């Protein structure tokens, strides 16, 4: 959960572009290059160790049979290693695709609101010491100590290099996916239509001007209310005019609130995943009919939820 808290600070302070642009492009390039390196290395090694034939078509001398069998055994192990790396490359490709799709939405004119950034609030006491010169990455075929021979040992070095590179990329991608999952932009009620918007409005009870701190999503009673992002439930129960309400903390002051529920399915302290069913739409509290009152709060202050929902493709008010 600590990683979610750290990710939330970057998201709520408006640094969401870092989640995708630098990491996604780098991962995509290295992953594709890695697949090419593995194929090339394996092809060279297999070509070196295929049975050699003399001009008469006879096979290799019996004295080299043991070496030949050993080489074939090593190539079999290398092939098994490559088979293990392939699904990891596919997983990285899928992750990068999702992150780049999210980046394209970040480039839309409607950007998410930014919370006031206070450098004093940044806790770096647990950060590991890192540093060194900034150099471009090297291809694994260049790192091998004997790249020109193309034998099994050299190919194994390249596979070890690729395995270490993939592990580093997977760790970095997982960190960004945690931040992505903590971004509250997923539609919290499928099939709902937008009702009363965020901001000043004529109150439906007093018929006087008042401030509406969220958006109303109109749908029949019993429609599932879904978590807009992953996080921890910090409140679940009756809450004045909100009726039955759920509040989810996504890290560093970024909270979503879901009001007027007919039924609550989670409890305070529960960890929830994005789009998890947390409650059902109802008309409890200060409500004129079945709908979900949805709020996004940054450091305790309500912001327009439609700016977040727009990044995930939800249609806002016209």
UniProtKB/TrEMBL annotation:
Domain of life of the native organism: Bacteria
Molecular function as annotated in GO: metalloendopeptidase activity
Pfam families, sorted: Peptidase_M23 (PF01551)
Domain M23ase beta-sheet core, residue spans: 211-305
Region of interest (Disordered), residue spans: 104-138
InterPro entries cross-referenced by the UniProt entry: Cell_wall_metabolism_enzyme, Dup_hybrid_motif, M23ase_b-sheet_dom
Transmembrane portions of the chain: 23-48
Protein name per the record: Peptidase family M23
Lineage: Bacteria, Pseudomonadati, Pseudomonadota, Betaproteobacteria, Burkholderiales
């Amino acid at each position: 959960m600590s990683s979610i808290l750290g990710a939330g600070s970057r998201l709520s302070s408006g640094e969401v572009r870092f989640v995708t642009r630098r990491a996604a492009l780098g991962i995509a390039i290295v992953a594709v290059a890695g697949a090419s390196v593995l194929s090339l290395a394996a092809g060279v090694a297999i070509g070196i160790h295929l049975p050699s034939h003399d001009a008469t078509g006879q096979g290799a001398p019996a004295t080299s049979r043991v070496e030949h069998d050993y080489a074939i055994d090593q190539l079999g192990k290398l092939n098994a290693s490559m088979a293990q790396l392939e699904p990891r490359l596919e997983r990285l490709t899928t992750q990068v695709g999702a992150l780049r799709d999210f980046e394209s939405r970040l480039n839309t004119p409607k950007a998410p609101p930014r919370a006031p950034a206070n450098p004093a609030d940044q806790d770096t006491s647990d950060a590991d010491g890192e540093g060194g010169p900034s150099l471009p990455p090297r291809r694994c075929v260049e790192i091998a100590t004997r790249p020109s021979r193309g034998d099994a040992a050299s190919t194994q070095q390249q596979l070890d290099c690729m395995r270490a590179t993939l592990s580093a990329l997977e760790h970095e991608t997982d960190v960004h996916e945690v931040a992505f999952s903590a971004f509250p932009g997923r539609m919290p009620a499928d099939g709902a239509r937008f009702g009363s918007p965020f901001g000043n409005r004529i109150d439906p009870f007093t018929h006087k001007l008042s401030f509406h701190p969220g958006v109303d999503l109109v749908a029949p009673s019993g429609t599932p209310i879904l978590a807009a992002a992953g996080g921890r439930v910090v409140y679940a129960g009756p809450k004045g005019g909100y009726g039955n309400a759920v509040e989810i903390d996504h890290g560093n002051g970024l909270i979503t609130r879901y009001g007027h529920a007919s039924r609550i399915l989670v409890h305070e302290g529960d960890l929830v995943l994005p789009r998890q069913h947390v409650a059902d739409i109802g008309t409890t509290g200060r409500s004129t009919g079945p709908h979900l009152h949805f709020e996004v709060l940054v450091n305790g202050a309500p912001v327009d939820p439609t700016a977040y929902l727009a990044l995930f493709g939800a249609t806002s008010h016209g």
